[in-house]
Amino acid sequence: MKVSEFNEIFGTDADEDLIGTVRRDKIYGYGGNDRLYGKDGDDILYGGTGNDRLDGGTGADVMYGQAGDDVYRVDNLADVVSETTVPGVDDGGVDTVESTITYALPMFIEKLTLKGTEAINGTGNELANRLTGNDAANVLSGGAGNDVLNGNGGDDVLIGGAGKDELWGGSGSDTFVFRFPDATSTDKVKDFSAADSDRIGIYASDYGLSLGHGLIDDGTGKLVLDPAYFVAVAGSASTVQGTSSGHGQFVFSFTSSTLTLMWDPDGAGAVRGTALATFNSGVTLSAADFTVTTGLPTASANGSPSPVPERAGAKVAFTIDLSAPANEDVLITYSTIDGTAKAGSDFVGVSHGQVTIPAGSTSATILIDVLADDLPETVESFSLQLEAAVGTSSGAPLLVASSSAVGSIAPPAPNVVAITDMAALGSTDPSGIAYVPGQGLFVSDSEVEESPFFRTTNLWTLQPDGTVVASSSLLSFTDEPTGLAFDSSTGRLYISDDDQSRIFWVDPANPSVMLGEFDTLSLGVIDPEDVAVNPNNGHLFIANGTGNSSGGGPLGNAIIETDSTGTQVFATIRLPAEIKDPEALAYDASQDLFYVGGGFSSKIWVVDRGGAIVQVIDVLGGYRNEINNGAASIKDLELAPSSDPNDDPSKLNLFVADYGQSHVSDGRMIEIDLHGGLLLA
């Protein structure tokens, strides 16, 4: 049975916790107030109706909250959050994103809360947003709408943007930024504190200020507000005005109940001032409380820290970051540059692409589509080149601090592509597996003749897709065929028996007749769980388990290399302690490496001749047995041609004999696609 790329998990109309696996999951909450956790993999989550929490976990996840007040957890630049089942139509509810990365709210999401301890930034959308910082230094930019911004701890920058916004700096030295005067966008500053060294932030160009015209040098080369351009006047904002003649002024009007900062464009002239913000009681302001930005920020390109797996739909994420928010949109032009990864075969190249960083924001994300070629490859990389960064209103170019960033693509990780129900074919506890060219996969069973089954057939011949070709009995010489291996040079099918401590061999065309044998005790192998063949010289590798009463004897958990008759030991490969009971063994002659497993774990270890672990394949944990929810119990491994008729005939996948629970009819054969690049990642 072919295995879907996704593991599907379905909720009900009740309130539920729906938890994903190490695989790629699709989780459907349906009704109720559900909590959906994708865990590992690039998952797709559907909240359904109700107030749901969606957390994709690691990976680039796609999350649809649907109806209700939903909460999303974002931790990856390629995460996608959507509140629109029908394009352009809000699914409803008041929804929240909790993010551990710099993030801009997409359509129809009302709230953003920054999590973690990193100095990250948040940007709102056109709605009335509530943006909440963490305890680091954040830039919060509301955009349009009547927003509420709360910096919490840290030295934050709060930019309300268009609309009547409510600004809370929290603890730390915070800067409240006011753009060009707009009577429809008077903000409320709720906790300005001189004790915290809070500041008023302005952009010189918004108010027509320059050196000698509202700005002076403070003696260090820094331009600050000229005190003549600020005045505090008693009275209400509707009646007071500036006192200067010939230029504008910031006017701080105060009464017993209201404190208002205004910009009066002509000072004592006839034009009235425009209120920028009202302030909490007890505040006094002066020109020294202003911080003035006189130029554009610098721009830099940044790449993702980790390789993205090669698969259709995957994306390599880059960011273009500004050193500070600008008071105008910034247009970014970029292109991809080939490295070891090539446009057209490894990724979709971009030439002179453009993205805009909105005024008040500090970052834009660029996603480059990955192409899957399924060829044996190492981790490959390419670059994103920042070609230009220009203010869209001023036309002024930004300085570029870092013009290039590197992204990388990893070979696809091993994944399960097919599972055969061996129990349905008569093998309750499959223990051995070997591939014989021209005949198929041979699978042995070490328990099927015992209670409660009492069957005489304990060897099956299958096509890689699970179709039964033949079956036979080995009971005339073994009722414990724990491992199988085939030597194409001699035509021998080797069979290990851990009860008798022997290795037998047969002709696979007539496997019921034993042709030869040798005892493994003389080799120090007390528990011969499995056997493998080196096709280059006919040597045998025997896995010595530790599961019997001897604990594996003096040899312990190890692999012995011997000749085809067990008369000479060429090498002893001692395995790490974590491979405590090696029961499954396959040999890859092309790389001189071993695949090792055992019923004690669902992991498969790739080991070199020195016994060092080269890689761990940990994909079976997400494929528990449907009969009893038991974990995979690995008893043998074999490299054999893929069962997919569309694959190249030379492509080898890793087949697993899954024993399941002893004396329970739940055996399986599992096929793992190694994607040809297992050890090159």
Automatic annotation (TrEMBL):
Primary subcellular site in the record, as a coarse category: secreted
Record-level Gene Ontology MF annotations: calcium ion binding
Signal peptide: none
Biological process per Gene Ontology, one example term: cell communication
Gene3D superfamilies, per the entry: 2.60.40.2030, Serralysin-like metalloprotease, C-terminal, TolB, C-terminal domain
Annotated Calx-beta domain residues: 281-387
UniProt xrefs under SUPFAM superfamilies: beta-Roll, CalX-like, NHL repeat
Gene Ontology CC annotation, any one: extracellular region
Subcellular location, record wording: Secreted
Keywords: Calcium, Repeat, Secreted, Signal
Highest taxon, organism lineage: Bacteria
Pfam families for this protein: Calx-beta (PF03160), HemolysinCabind (PF00353)
PANTHER family registered for this protein in UniProt: S-LAYER PROTEIN
Protein name: Calx-beta domain-containing protein
Organism whose genome encodes this protein: Bradyrhizobium icense
